[in-house]
Design the sequence.
């Protein structure tokens, strides 16, 4: 089951639990073949920036879509 | 002159991971000397302090007291008895305000003065405590660069002012306050001065006597030492008069139950303020960190950071779309450069930098009122230390330039 990360304003709980922290924690802990889904807003992290970070962290994007400032990306660690 | 290339060799994570660690205002990396000192102490000399009559306790107690001496010397204190070890700056801040309240130094009708730029470790305990006892916090506002408007201090100070507390160096803007000027004004109305020195003691020559302050707060982990140890320094004559609000093991000479109460004969400072088993191992680590910094020379450390800060300011200011937070004049600030990339969430920028192995801090840096005043929802903060070289600054500037080039039009 893919881990879902929400990079949205709604998902912000506190400085300790911010969405970007959850993202980096998930990316660094993900094992080979592990799948993640990122549901995000451009105002939190631009779509292109996310794609770049995922690539840098060794993930392959298998599905992506965006519209009206929101996006959904599914990626697998290679 | 500080040779950062040689210094780096003492920090394994830098050489192993190739990381540009620019998050020193949050916490600093630990040199192998500090790690080895703590490990060696735990292996060979550990025991509880000031309690046993066995030789391990004697050895541990000596190491613990030496740590007080080392810190006292490092900050130009009159004696080691003026140095109280606690968990961190935040705890030191809490203990101090509660001590002053418990001893009637501040209370109903009194005022404490602090600025809009303060870290929450100062803001929260002091504002809440003074209100609780029926007093008032007076806030020195900041200008559009986030610099406290110390020119308004004369209007704010009054015979009701008991304490002026402020950060020596802002953890957001890096602005360096002229402490002696503030002390002069505070003294003129008989107020105590407490300095949040968390961002200054680790980074520049620091002397409590020369500054003329009454109390100072700082943390070991921000100066190459371990977490779990912070310092409350206080003038000896003041500490001797103050009774602690927290009692516990190791704080008394004698306790006698009388009726339904206790009569206490408090021990001398600093012990009366160090309730419970203290941070013994951490103190050994802090002493070694102090020795390391002393060998480098704090003037060299300050000069080194000044150069890095100046270069970072120059490089980042040159990038369109980057807004520097705080004074543009490098002579007014030290060691810290916060900025925003217009239109981009700072957390996203920080995460992107991390993917390039550049570690920065993002967010409001536990200084929410300052960010609100400046109309910011957070910043990216780069902060420098002894193991950063010019190449770290160049990596940061180059990475931000790349980010802006690739995504500024997106």
Sequence:
């Amino acid at each position: 089951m893919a881990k879902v990360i929400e990079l949205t304003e709604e998902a912000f709980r506190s400085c300790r639990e911010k969405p970007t922290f959850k993202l980096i924690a998930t990316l660094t802990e993900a094992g080979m073949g592990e799948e993640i889904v990122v549901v995000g807003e451009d105002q939190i992290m631009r779509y292109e920036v996310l794609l770049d970070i995922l690539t840098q962290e060794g993930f392959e994007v298998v599905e992506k879509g965006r519209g009206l400032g929101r996006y959904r990306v599914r990626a697998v660690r290679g | 002159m500080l040779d950062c290339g040689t210094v780096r060799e003492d920090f394994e994570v830098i050489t192993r991971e190739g990381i540009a660690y620019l998050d020193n205002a949050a916490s600093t990396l630990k040199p192998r000397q500090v790690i080895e000192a703590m490990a060696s102490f735990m292996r060979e000399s550990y025991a509880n302090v000031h309690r046993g009559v066995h030789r391990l306790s004697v050895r541990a107690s000596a190491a613990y007291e030496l740590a007080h001496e080392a810190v006292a010397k490092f900050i130009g204190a009159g004696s080691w008895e003026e140095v109280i070890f606690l968990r961190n700056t935040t705890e030191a801040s809490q203990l101090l305000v509660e001590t002053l309240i418990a001893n009637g130094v501040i209370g109903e009708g009194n005022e404490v003065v602090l600025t809009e730029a303060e870290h929450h470790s100062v803001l929260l305990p002091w504002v809440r405590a003074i209100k609780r006892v029926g007093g008032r916090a007076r806030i020195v506002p900041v200008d559009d660069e986030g610099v406290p408007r110390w020119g308004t201090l004369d209007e704010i100070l009054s015979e009701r002012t008991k304490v002026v507390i402020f950060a020596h160096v802002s953890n957001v803007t890096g602005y360096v306050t002229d402490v002696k000027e503030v002390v002069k004004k505070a003294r003129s109305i008989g107020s105590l001065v407490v300095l949040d020195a968390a961002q200054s003691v680790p980074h520049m020559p620091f002397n409590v006597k020369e500054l003329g302050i009454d109390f100072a707060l700082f943390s070991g982990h921000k100066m190459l030492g371990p977490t779990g140890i912070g310092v409350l320094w206080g003038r000896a004559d003041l500490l001797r008069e103050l009774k602690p609000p927290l009692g516990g093991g190791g704080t008394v000479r004698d306790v006698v139950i009388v009726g339904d109460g206790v009569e206490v004969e408090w021990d001398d400072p600093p012990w009366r303020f160090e309730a419970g088993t203290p941070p013994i191992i951490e103190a050994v680590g802090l002493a070694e960190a102090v020795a390391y910094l002393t060998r480098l020379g704090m003037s060299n450390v300050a000069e080194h950071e000044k150069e890095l800060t100046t270069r970072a300011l120059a490089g980042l200011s040159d990038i369109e779309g980057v807004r520097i937070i705080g004074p543009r004049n490098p002579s007014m600030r030290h060691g810290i450069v916060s900025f925003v990339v217009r239109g981009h969430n700072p957390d996203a920028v920080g995460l992107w930098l991390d993917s390039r192995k550049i570690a920065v801090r993002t967010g409001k840096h536990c200084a929410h009122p300052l960010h609100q005043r400046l109309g910011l929802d957070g910043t990216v903060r780069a902060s420098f230390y002894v193991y950063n070289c010019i190449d770290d600054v160049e990596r940061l500037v180059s990475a931000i330039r790349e980010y802006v080039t690739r995504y500024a039009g997106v």
About this structure: Residues 141 and 404 of chain B are 33 Å apart (CA to CA). Chain B has a mean pLDDT of 95. Chain B touches chain A at residues 344-345, 347-348, 350-352, 354-356, 362-364, 366, 403, 406-407, 410 (CB under 8 Å). Residues 55-74 of chain B form the longest helix (20 residues).
